[in-house]
Specification:
This protein is α/β, with parallel strands linked by helices and 530 residues long. It has three domains: 14-262, Up-down Bundle (Growth Hormone, Chain: A); 266-295, no CATH class; 303-512, Vaccinia Virus protein VP39 (Rossmann fold, 3-Layer(aba) Sandwich). Helices cover 53% and strands 13% of the residues. It contains 14 helices and eleven strands. It has a seven-stranded mixed sheet with strand order 7-6-5-8-9-11-10. Strands 1-2-3-4 form a four-stranded antiparallel sheet, covered by helices on one side. Helix 1 runs parallel beside helix 3, helix 3 runs parallel beside helix 6 and helix 7 (305-311) packs across helix 8. It is elongated, with a radius of gyration of 29 Å. The termini are far apart. The relative contact order is 0.09. Residues 1-16 and 123-129 have low confidence and may be disordered. It is found in: Cell membrane. Residues 247-485 form the PABS domain. Pfam families: Spermine_synth.
Amino acid sequence: MIDPHAPARPGAPPSWRGPARLPVGPGTGRFLVLAGVFVCAACGLVYELELVALSAYVTGDPVTQTSVVLSVMVFAMGIGSLVAKRLRRRAAAGFAVIEAVLALVGGCSAMALHAVFAWTGDWGGPWAAGPRTLMVAFSLAIGLLIGAEIPLLMELIQRIRRQDAGGAVADLFAADYVGGLAGGLAFPFLLLPLMGQLTGALLIGAVNAVAGGALVLGLFGRDLTRRARLVLLAANLTVLGVLAAAAVLVDDFERAARTAVYGADVRVAVRTDVQEVVLTGGARGHPLGLYLDGRLRVSACDGHRYHEALVHPAMNGPHARVLVLGGGDGLAAREVLRFAGVRRVRVVEADAGLLRLAATDPALSDLNGHAYDDPRVRVTAADAFRWLRGAPHAAYDVVIADLPGPGRAAGAPLYSQEFYGLARRALAPGGRLVVHAGPAAAPRRRVLWTVDSTLRAAGLRTTPYLDARDRGLVLAAPGARPPLGLAGGPGVPRPHTLTPRLLAAGRAEAAAGRIPDLPPSTLAHPRYRG
């Protein structure tokens, strides 16, 4: 029988080396190692979630980005575990180095990705270059380092007190998974709301460096040479210094990055519960721009083109009761209120922060004609899909879906057959629904016709058309196909830019690119990818 406390035999595998010379008892030592596993696992999961959140935020496609980041990380973790086999003879020093590098790479990853996005704006580019490549590189690097942790920790915990491999693995993975739970909950509920992505990642990097360095130097320091201890201490202090310097400069960095994305005329920048909202211009003769999650949604230079094309054809008929889904900027409501026959307007917008800004910011409220001050307007801060499920039946003559577009995976449910079925139920007899279908130029034409097919699958007759900027729009109604035209008669406003000729041209241009027989998009099978 082999004595686990006997000196190592020459040439013996690392697992049979003598016990570690600990400053504490074996029980306390095992507890400290498992506590280190817990902290490092929490930090590792936060790094993963940071990459997923930032990449999804700037691309608007959380499904793809989550799949890419997690699959690449899991693959890299397997490779890291294999690589770590070569480090088991120097498990303590190897683990300390890995944690220092992981703290630096993971802590700085969010800032690096944000910088590349801000100064290149290339997230929509090919996978072979730009920020997407950097995201994959960070996923690989972080996955390799996380994967190398468990084999080394297994070696360290066995050197404290040998036990059967199954029991040691169970202990390690229990601490690892519980740490992952803590990190997964801390990220959305503590780090993001209290510190934001950049500062939160830097803080987690610092925690990671301290935990890894303290575990090795404090618990296994007697097994290291004096030189090794000094090198590891210097490395960890350097990492902490870099992270601290980045944390001090993070506000200046965010301002510089915001200027790179939006220009020097940023006037308001807030992170709501739903998205980042930025207002540029609107003072000193500079035109107002409204950006949502980095994308221009409203420009005073664009005048009335989009909102007139969206609203006026749908108002060609009974329009006393109007429902606006989305449209938190108030511009669709502004166009609706120009019609004298409107008695009440309900705006349902998921972002309460955007609603407040549209009602209180002087420049934006001027642009929307102070629509939210009109007594006919009622505002509800709610998800449009959820709200429609409880909406009264046949209560609206016009439903205007002024939503961001189906190209962003997060908005796909709002362009599903189920959503349009609920919208149809809210329409009164003879009512009309109009839908913004996103950019509809040649590369994106399939999206417009998928929206059209989905509306028809929900029992609506459709008339697709384009506005002057090639944005796709679909006018729909139950029963007969709705005519595409402008309302006439007393109390009907004259559009600033829209004419019957432009409407006819937009309908003809849309019809010329028709893609027939596309399957509808549903909640279970969204079809707006590509």
